[in-house]
Amino acid sequence: MNTVRFGIVGIGKQGTLYTKFFTKAGSVLKGAKLTAVCDIDEGRRAYAEKNLPGVRVFEDYKEMFASGLIDAVMVETPHYFHPQIAMDALDAGLNVLCDKPAGVYTKQVRELNEKAKQHPELLFGMMFNQRTNPLYIKAKQLIDSGELGEMKRIVWIITDWYRPKAYYDQGGWRGTWNGEGGGVLLNQCPHQLDLFTWLAGMPETVTSQLATRGRDISVENDVTAMCTFRNGASGVFITSTHDAPGTNRLEITGDCGKIVIEKGKLVFTKNAVPEPEFSKTNTVFMGKPKTKKITYGGKAYYLRFRKHPPQHLGIIKNYTDYLLGKTKDFTAPGEQGINGLTFSNAIHLSGWLGKTVTLPFDEDLFLSELEKRKAEETAANT
Fold first, then answer.
1. Which DSSP letter does residue 81 get?
2. What is the distance between the alpha carbons of residues 247 and 238, in angstroms, rounded to a whole number?
3. DSSP state letters, 91-153
4. What is the rounded distance in angstroms from the CA atom of residue 165 to the CA atom of residue 210?
5. I need a labelling partner for 138 at 20 to 30 A (CA). Which of 44, 191, 239, 262 fits?
6. Cα gap 79→99, rounded to integer Å
7. Is 334 in contact with 95 (CB distance < 8 Å)?
8. Signed CA dihedral, 115, 120, 126, 128: sign only
9. Helix, coil or strand: residue 216
């Protein structure tokens, strides 16, 4: 294979953005070609016919899968449909690059992962574009290398997702249990939930509070979640879509120092001596370990250390290059899509039940609670 022929299922806002990558970033996406798109909406198909010359337009994605025109499928539909479309693509012998989230609930994504295992000859990837960010890559290196030491705490405050009433008014599926399957956790935060578990691992317990503030929507737009990890470390995840101004600050503390990522920079404050060792040997009242600050960030850092083009374009390029054998580094394996979703589902379940949830949680109970909210929403709108 010298060229990966892509087909996109769903050419709404995000899918259309990706079509422009193929048409306007050809030199970056060398070896990738958009050959087909699909959408059930007549208006979107008309847009594609007019603006995507040479690209075949389909109404039925299964017809596109059987056309012989594509090698890989990008799934850009509402969340509930991601797993089934991805599984159908795999069964059709096609590689899959699925947008976030992998699905709405882990039970359906677990089925997708099992399907992917049945097709080891195909490449299953997730559009986790934040994994191309050099700052998060550096944070993972500091953690995995042991330079940070054993983790004590991870705290992420990400409340800069501000969405006014007009945002939710633009589409009937937005801000609904039936359309999206959740609010800020399912729409805005899958990338951060992925990174949270990518960097810190999977929590063992989750306790959360969910709220809907200032918007006429069914789903949550304000979340505070606390969690614990196997080694005794703690975690906090706070997010919202109604704070103005908002914050985006990730802080990870270990025995050997602290990582802070904020405003485009990573600051690693490194202890001269690991904290447990210092505490045992120090004889000075109120003594503290000596520290050294190392800063990563800024334009020069990004240009020097970026492995891929930024964001979504970087994931598509990495996915293409991996398929073509140009790299052995696969940034976002599809089976990892369940990790952040597991954390997300646990946060929802804890908030719904009003109690701490232990992982692995009861997936049937989660689905039952989700269906209750969908039914209540349907009843309220009839």
1. G
2. 10
3. HTT-EEEEPSPS-SSHHHHHHHHHHHHT-TTS-EEE--GGGG-HHHHHHHHHHHTTSS-SEEE
4. 19
5. 239
6. 9
7. no
8. positive
9. coil
Q: How far apart are CA 25 and CA 310, in angstroms?
A: 12
Nearest-Å Rg of the Cα atoms of the chain is 22
Check pLDDT > 90 for residue 260: yes
CA dist 69 → 4, 48, 63, 87 (Å): 10, 16, 10, 18
With pLDDT > 70 as the criterion, what percentage of the chain qualifies? 97
CATH code of domain 131-306+339-380: 3.30.360.10
Q: Are 324 and 31 spatial neighbours (Cβ–Cβ below 8 Å)?
A: yes
Which ranges in the chain are annotated with CATH 3.40.50.720? 4-129+309-334
DSSP string, 164-181: -HHHHHT-TTTT-TTTTS
If you ran DSSP here, which 8-state letter would residue 265 be given?
E
- The predicted structure's pLDDT at residue 382: 84
- One-letter amino acid of 216: D
d(CA 296, CA 298): 7
Q: How much is the average pLDDT of 35-44?
A: 97
Q: Which two tokens stand for residue 311?
A: 């964001």
Averaged pLDDT, 165-183? 88
**CATH, range 4-129+309-334:** 3.40.50.720
CB 229 within 8 A of CB 203: yes
Residues 4/31, Cβ–Cβ less than 8 Å = yes
The tens digit of pLDDT for each residue in 112-145 reads: 999 999 999 999 999 999 999 999 999 999 999 9
Cis peptide before 78 (omega within 30 of 0): no
Residue pLDDT, tens place only, 302-345: 666 656 678 899 999 999 999 999 999 999 999 999 999 999 99
Q: For residues 284 and 21, what is the distance between their CA atoms, to the nearest angstrom?
A: 59
Residues of each domain in the chain carrying CATH 3.30.360.10 = 131-306+339-380
